[in-house]
Amino acid sequence: MKKALCIVGLLAAFGSFKTAAEHHLLAAQRGAGFQLATLSGQTRTQLGQTGFVAALSGFRALMADLLWIRAGSAFDRTEWPRMQMLLHAATQLQPRAVVFWEMAHFHMAYDASHSMRLNVRQQPVAALRRVAELEYVQIGEDFLKAGLVFNPESATLWQRLGELYSRRRDDPARAAAAFTEAAKKPGALRFLRRMAAYELAKVPDKEREAYAQLRALYLEGEQERLPNLVRLLRQLEEKLAVPEASRVYSQPPALGPSGTHAPR
Amino acid sequence: MNQAQNPFSLSLRRIWALSHNTFLELVRLKVFYFLLLFAFLIIGSSLFTVQFSFQNPLQVLKDVGLGAMSIFSWLLGLLCTANLLPKDMEDRTLYTILAKPVSRFEYLLGKLYGVFLLLGLSVLLMSLLFAGVLAIREQQEIAELARNLSPENLPAAVAEIRAATFQMNLLPGIALILLKAMLCSTLTLLLSTLASSSVFTVLTSVVVYLIGHVQGIAREAWLAGGQASPLLKVLVAGMALAFPDLQLFNVVDEIAVGTALPALLFWQVAGFGGMYILVYFLLAQLVFSTREL
Amino acid sequence: MSATAILIKDLCKEFPVPFRRETVKAVQNLSLEVPAGEVYGLLGPNGSGKSTTMKIVLGLVRPTSGTTSVFGVDSRRVESRENVGFLPENPYFYKYLTGLETLLFFGKLCGLAGSPLRERSRELLHTVGLEEAADRRLGGYSKGMLQRIGLAQALLGEPRLLVLDEPTAGVDPAGAHAIRDLILQCKQRGITVLLCSHLLGQVQEICDRIGIMDRGELLAEGRIDDLAGKKNQIELVLENATPALLESLGAMSRASGAQVVSQRGARTDLEKFFLDVTRHRS
Ligand SMILES: Nc1ncnc2c1ncn2[C@@H]1O[C@H](COP(=O)(O)OP(=O)(O)OP(=O)(O)O)[C@@H](O)[C@H]1O
Ligand SMILES: [Mg+2]
Questions:
Q1: N or C: less crowded end of chain A, CB within 10 Å?
Q2: Model's pTM, two decimal places?
Q3: At C207, which CATH number?
Q4: CB nearest to C78's CB, from B5, B13, B18
């Protein structure tokens, strides 16, 4: 009995020290992108009791995969609300898997929302179909934004956000901002800066800014002088009435073999 | 307590003899057959995951492998350690050993070290098997792609497959899986010095394992000072103080999806695990040194 | 070198009885001294505390009070076991080891290594008659074979003190005989032996001194000859003696004042007969 008390005492003394250390370590790990999964009530419901225990004790990534596969079967049956819940649970379990956020947003903002638009049989009123469509675009946007909270350095997610603003929302100002952000991230592809400038050119009172960006890109060298960029640059020079002397070129661009490779 | 026996008189040769013997015991008890289960699981799911189209089958296979490695190494350590002391005491082999110039400290250390050896070897074998199966599947997938994709799209697709297979950056994560299993073994050893039956040891150790994985949640809630009832607070505080946070060793899942583990962080976690092992071992020695055989 | 091999002073050991307040008094106020080179026999009925005493001497069990030491070193210290070989009662070793591996393992614990250890192990396997079973796992050994391997293990580290708890239990007569010879050899080499056995005949043959315990207490102690010898009697065994010779021997003894106490036809004793029969087979 005395021995047991002695041990409990020692454990408590060690415990108060190690609790502080654990707290510190957890913060450090979260800072580096670990231990970010949240096992909320909703995730727990999706996983069931056994799955929840498994997720807690080493099979978290696998449980996320299983949820993902179940989301796939919901996709096959076009059960969008169920799919949304499963995607949410999977991303919560494995929030550092960029591909999960990316695919989740595709399925919501594109697949589900398109299917809402075409859903004439269940919703004959066009305006209401439009509302439903936009709701899913919003859900897709929410997935991207949540994904960016966990992966702020992901160029892919910023790029997808820009694409969503551009294609699904007709919001070139925010699209430009998202592409600009994407272009700053490690591993970003070159064309993102071009995309930012293209989008900015569509914003009514930002043309001057857009022109400055396009011009800077043009001056960087041959590899940026793609037909679209050159065409837009010329349009802007006309529109903004840039003096002849300070225009970047006066001849029509030659269409070289490099001109064939255009941004997606 | 007039403990004349110096618990720290160590002979590496004796410890080695004891741990080698423990290792041999576990091997001859055919403990490694347990790993065949792991092999079946990996190879089975490797065949099974081919049919998934919605999620990258290699990623699923990898997650199965890493999860199974974590569970198997833990279970192996737990089951091997739980019976070590009770068996020696029951068979009275302990008398013969301790009648030699062997201190109880050496005996305990030798036993634990033998289990560690076994765990290390098991994790190594599991990793090799796992890496091998993934490599084979990788080749299959790439061959499949080469047949279906145009040459200019191939490099990107191959790179994606490569990223989902076994990569060297997983090794620190696997090392921490091993460390977690060793920590749980040491804890089991401590429990078995206290317990009178190995059923108790195993059950308690399993409970500690489960609680250890939610301890972090409880601890953070307690430290944040939420609005819980006083009784609940005391409970949670006790849980935070008494149990190890085993979740801190689960970093391999994030590594598998491309998160880089900084070296400093790895060593911090490793040092933390080492400290736990040390403390649990010293407690086990404290109990064992005064225990009536 | 200390002249005293084992010194036990006022030793008491009580075992708690689970869930009760009372205790079992296994050893009570035992004081004992075994000089180096002596063969000492502990006798007593079952449960009298013999094994417990031995375990305390070896530091395996903690005394409730009192002290024990081996060659002047307190039993609680690891060093006290450096020159000791112990054969526990009903010895039991790792089933998964072979006879040879068992000796190698214990040899390493004694600080031996390499080829000296191998040689010594082979030699001891020969001594205890287990050469043929050397590479078989102990799981398949019989009780007597385990006893023999236990004895070999006790002799491994060239001990100066042997503690043997019922060394011949379960061993066949030839083996028991061999073990008796072995102990006598040890005695000749100056090794101290603490022995306990229920075979009084054997104890009488090999022990210099005995102590008799009952319920944890030492009741009697002394040299065998003092305790059991009949100084004024002598036995005489004759072969091919005619009745006339016996008659005249009886007359002669009466004439010199002596007395024939008993006279019977000598039997080959069963042990000798058994040994003869089994020796012929091998
Ligand atoms: N570990 C233990 N726990 C409780 N009681 C014990 C323990 N070991 C011995 N005893 C008790 O101590 C007493 C002495 O036991 P011990 O084994 O010393 O007897 P022994 O003289 O060797 O008997 P035997 O001739 O049968 O071998 C017995 O009553 C026994 O029940
Ligand atoms: Mg006994």
A1: N
A2: 0.86
A3: 3.40.50.300
A4: B5
